[in-house]
Amino acid sequence: MSLDILYFAWVRERIGLPRETVQTQAATVSDLVAELTAREARYEAAFQDLSALRVAVDQELTEFDAPLAGAREVAFFPPMTGG
Amino acid sequence: MEVRVQAGPFDIGAEISRFTEGRTDMGAIVTFSGLVRDSAAGDLRHMEIEHYPAMTAPAIEKIAAEAVSRWSLGDAMVIHRHGRLAPGEQIMMVATAAPHRADAFAAAEFLMDYLKSRAPFWKKEVTAEGAAWVAAKDEDEAALTRW
């Protein structure tokens, strides 16, 4: 399947791009993270500590074990600092 | 209920007047506004606020709808800015309207707690020393448990 992946804040800076489209068979967010991490060091640098990251699937906050079936967009970012 | 995510400034006085206009059924209006605070060293050049455009307004609308239903509010409003902001500039405001003040105060605090940790904004501070992302505080996440 084709997935749009978005990165924000320091995750975007470490990976070096704000978004990309990937072809993947990842069943869960964790599987997708493993695929990306295996690609290049910059992904490894961004994903080294998942407890410091949050994930949204189709604009809804979720967990790293969330399934990706039917998903179109996954976003990775640090804990939010609004307000 | 109104949620606005914008780069430009807003006039808080005009926003409050508009929010309260004609509301003869609401006895209490609570407003909060957050400003860009200078660094302890006084060298903050500006703050940059990044957000997730497709998610920001829907996430805030969900939080505001929850506040309206929990406290029987007459209305709620949230304005949050993004982009480059100078020290002293307004970042955001919330307003709540209720028949009595306890509901208006509690709902405004709830909105602020959730906006801090659940609305997809990220702040970066740019000083003479360089740029650094503002880290989320453990106490901000812990504050959600009181609701």
UniProtKB/TrEMBL annotation, chain A:
Which InterPro entries does the record cross-reference, listed alphabetically?
A: Beta-grasp_dom_sf, MOCS2A, Mopterin_synth/thiamin_S_b, ThiS/MoaD-like
The GO cellular component terms are: molybdopterin adenylyltransferase complex
- Please list the GO terms describing molecular function: nucleotide binding
* UniProtKB keywords: Nucleotide-binding
Q: Name one GO biological process term.
A: Mo-molybdopterin cofactor biosynthetic process
- Please name one Pfam family that this protein belongs to: ThiS
Tell me the superkingdom of the source: Bacteria
Family membership, please give it: Belongs to the MoaD family.
Alphabetized PANTHER family for the sequence = MOLYBDOPTERIN SYNTHASE SULFUR CARRIER SUBUNIT
Q: What is this protein called?
A: Molybdopterin synthase sulfur carrier subunit
Q: Supply the source organism for this entry.
A: Palleronia abyssalis
Automatic annotation (TrEMBL), chain B:
| Known EC number | 2.8.1.12
| Transferase is among the record's keywords | yes
Q: Which residues form a coiled coil?
A: none
Pathway membership? Cofactor biosynthesis; molybdopterin biosynthesis
Query: What reaction(s) does this enzyme catalyze?
Result: 2 [molybdopterin-synthase sulfur-carrier protein]-C-terminal-Gly-aminoethanethioate + cyclic pyranopterin phosphate + H2O = molybdopterin + 2 [molybdopterin-synthase sulfur-carrier protein]-C-terminal Gly-Gly + 2 H(+)
Listed A to Z, the keywords are:
Molybdenum cofactor biosynthesis, Transferase
Q: What are the transmembrane regions? A: none
Alphabetized CDD domains for the sequence = MoaE
Q: Does the keyword Transferase apply?
A: yes
Q: Which GO terms describe its biological process?
A: Mo-molybdopterin cofactor biosynthetic process
**Can you name one GO molecular function term for this protein?**
molybdopterin synthase activity
Q: Entry's InterPro entries?
A: MoaE_sf (IPR036563), Mopterin_biosynth_MoaE (IPR003448)
Question: What top-tier enzyme class does this entry carry?
Answer: transferase
Q: How does it assemble?
A: Heterotetramer of 2 MoaD subunits and 2 MoaE subunits. Also stable as homodimer. The enzyme changes between these two forms during catalysis.
Record-linked PANTHER family: MOLYBDOPTERIN SYNTHASE RELATED
What family is reported?
Answer: Belongs to the MoaE family.
Q: Its biological function?
A: Converts molybdopterin precursor Z into molybdopterin. This requires the incorporation of two sulfur atoms into precursor Z to generate a dithiolene group. The sulfur is provided by MoaD.
What name goes with this protein?
A: Molybdopterin synthase catalytic subunit
Q: Which organism is it from?
A: Palleronia abyssalis
Question: Lineage in the entry?
Answer: Bacteria, Pseudomonadati, Pseudomonadota, Alphaproteobacteria, Rhodobacterales
Question: What is this protein's gene name?
Answer: moaE
